[in-house]
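hey so u asked for the seq, here:
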Amino acid sequence: MIGQSLGKVTIVVVTLLFVTMSLGGEEKASTTVRPAYCAGGWYPGTAEALAKEVNDLLAKAAPPGLSGKPIAVIAPHAGYRFSAPTAAAGYKCLQGHAYKRVIVLAFSHTRAGTYQGVDVPDKLTAYHTPLGDVPIDREICDALLRKPGFAPHPGIDRGEHSLELQLPFLQRVLKGFRLVPLLVGRMSQADETEAARAILPYLDDDTLLVASTDFTHFGLRFGYQPFKDDVPNKLRELADRAVEPILKADYDGFVKHLDETGDTICGRGPVRLLLRILSMRGGASGVRTAFDTSGNLTGGWSNSVTYQSIVLTRVPGTLGSQEQAELLRLARQTVTAHLNSRELPKPDKTALPPALRQDGACFVTLENRGRLRGCIGNMQATGPLYQAVIHNAVSACQDYRFVQSPVTAGELDQIDIEISYLTPMKPVSKPGEIIVGRHGLHISLGGRRGVLLPQVAYERGWAREEFLAQVCRKAGLPLDAWKRPEAQIQCFTAEVFGE
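ran it, structure tokens below
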């Protein structure tokens, strides 16, 4: 966190910009619109100057290309003279995309350790900046306030900059969005899982996640000096270590980095929660759009703060939407025919897309209003993918776990079908290679085998070791059997799509 100077004295000028409303002909300060506390100090205080600075920074930014629409951004929040060019590179990736809602995960620099869970405003209707008001999504905020772990903490954001400094960039690159402002306090891993589960229902294609953080705070001023020589390069190496798991949406890997290094990442709470959300949503793929340090900007390395911006998108798949729809249609026809004792479909393979005629492995899952009714598949391809879907759809209707209450034709209207298209398995040499949200697991030991699909882990909010233990349980092995040298662990990825 840096104000206007990195010298011996840091001077932060804060302008309290009160938004007024007319009540009975009198002008009074609004209690429902949060003022722009940091305008005129941390960033320009007038609309004209602020718009010009942000526009200029966006015009100069040259981030790498992305594989799809961004679903999340991690951006710094120091004074604009220090961190804004780095932030601009991330926010520029949003240009040309539309979002109806932006969930910003930030924190209080002065009071984050004084409360448990996530702060949600209970009365605010908007955040104000010199560029205008950003309306708050009261419906979502009110819904979260009814969930455990979410509560209002009046005054917690007074003077706080971690969230406010993100808004001018969002205002310049997006139009017509509503804000869900969340300030992350003390949270255990279990708390983060529950909070992520509460937020997940509101993440659709029109929703963007933003986590606000600066990275390493180095030097005596911050009480963190893991090295004294070659500081610029060592800071870059530390930043690379921190960002590596983030780019893979690897929650466990990021937690491990923090535990092993003590890295002074001020917004570790928002980043951890963002990664927990993404891992429970099926993972993501990220790119680092910019990197800098205050040491590089000032030429002084006795104290330095690292800035990085990262943009994450969905993991690209190999099957297109039309190919997925064709496989789901084929699975639905098969389940319907089987349950009604009719002849199974025999598609004209020459009319099918080439990808469906190639050898492929898959699982077919049947659920009745969220309740599992069958899940059967093959780990290795034994023939064309479309044939695997037909075969596994029939087998899912006959899942041995439900032999006492098999799926019936009367359930067809309530049955939802999901297909998991698998990549070939590859051996895992160390547990750190496993990413919850991306990988499924297969463990074998002493003639016993267990397998769980990726979505089983991320839908339950498991961390890596819990996932390994549950696969062992599935195999009928002790929960820690994965630690034995003779245990064979393999991972695979799956493109998961459903009706």
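DSSP finds 14 helices and 21 strands in the chain. The chain has three domains: 20-313, 321-422, 426-498.
lmk if thats what u needed
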